[in-house]
Design goal:
alpha+beta, four-stranded antiparallel β-sheet, 5 helices, about 15% helix, binds zinc ion
C-alpha cells in the first residue's frame, strides 16, 4: 500500500477501541516511503528540500500506541532514517504489546519543528534537521533521523552551565531529580531502555557530560 492510501485511514491522534481496530490493524507498524504530500508537510520545518538528507532515506512509520497504562489505542506516526526503521518498528511493537505508555507520537512539524514545544507537549519524535539543543553549530543525530526522544517531558536533557542547572524543556524541572518515581520515567530497569539497548542504540541518560534521559541514538 502507498502512503497516500494509508493516509485515508491513519488519522494521527485518533483513538480506536481494540475490537474496532479494523481496517487500521493492517496498517499497524508499517514503514512507508515519503510521498509529495508528506514532503510538503515537513518542508521548511523539520526538513529542507535540497539541504536536509534525501527524502528517499526517510521512512514514515505508522505506530499505534497507548497514551496511558489503560485506555484506548491511539494512532501515532514517526519519521526516521530508513536504516533504523526495522529497529523502531520492532521496538514500538514490543512497547505496544506491553501497553507501555507513550503519551504522544506526532511529527515535530505539528509543533513547527520547535523542539521545546514538542518536548513540553510530551511528544515522542525522531527526525528533525536541527542542531543540538545547547549549540547552534553541532548537528544532532536527529538531523539524520538516527535518534529518538521518548516521553521527553518526563525525561529531560540536563546540563550544568557555569554552575547553573539547565533543563530542557524547562517545564521538566520537577523530573530532573531521577531519585524520584513517576510515570513515563526512563531508567535502566525500564522496558523502553532495554529494547533500545538490545537493538544497539546508545542511551543519552548515560552521558556524563550531561544526561539526556529521553534520547536513544545509533
Ligand atoms: Zn534527542
Amino acid at each position: 500500500m502507498e502512503l497516500s492510501q494509508a493516509r485515508k485511514y491513519w488519522k494521527v491522534g485518533a483513538s480506536i477501541g481494540c475490537e474496532g481496530c479494523e481496517p487500521f490493524s493492517s496498517l499497524f507498524f508499517k514503514a512507508f516511503e515519503p510521498d509529495e504530500t508528506l514532503l510538503q508537510r515537513i518542508d521548511g520545518k523539520s526538513w529542507k528540500r535540497g539541504q536536509s538528507i534525501p527524502a528517499e532515506d526517510l521512512r514514515y512509520l505508522t505506530l499505534p500506541h497507548f497514551p496511558g497504562i489503560n485506555g484506548d489505542i491511539v494512532l501515532g506516526e514517526m519519521l526516521c532514517h530508513k536504516d533504523i526503521a526495522p529497529d523502531l518498528l520492532d521496538i514500538f511493537q514490543s512497547l505496544f504489546n506491553h501497553h507501555y505508555p507513550i503519551e504522544r507520537l506526532r511529527l515535530i512539524d505539528d509543533y513547527e519543528a520547535d523542539d521545546n514545544a514538542s518536548m513540553a507537549a510530551n511528544n515522542s519524535s525522531c527526525f528533525c534537521d536541527r542542531s543540538v539543543a545547547w549549540s547552534s553549530e553541532k548537528k544532532s543525530r536527529h538531523a539524520l533521523g538516527m535518534a529518538v526522544d521518548i516521553n521527553p517531558l518526563y525525561n529531560p536533557m540536563v546540563r550544568v552551565r557555569d554552575g547553573v542547572l539547565k533543563v530542557y524543556p524547562p517545564q521538566s524541572l520537577p523530573y530532573a531529580d531521577r531519585t524520584r518515581n513517576f510515570d513515563y520515567k526512563i531508567e535502566r530497569s525500564d522496558l523502553c531502555y532495554k529494547l533500545f539497548i538490545a537493538r544497539g542504540f546508545r542511551w543519552g541518560g548515560a552521558w556524563a557530560s550531561g544526561p539526556d534521559f529521553q534520547h536513544f541514538e545509533k
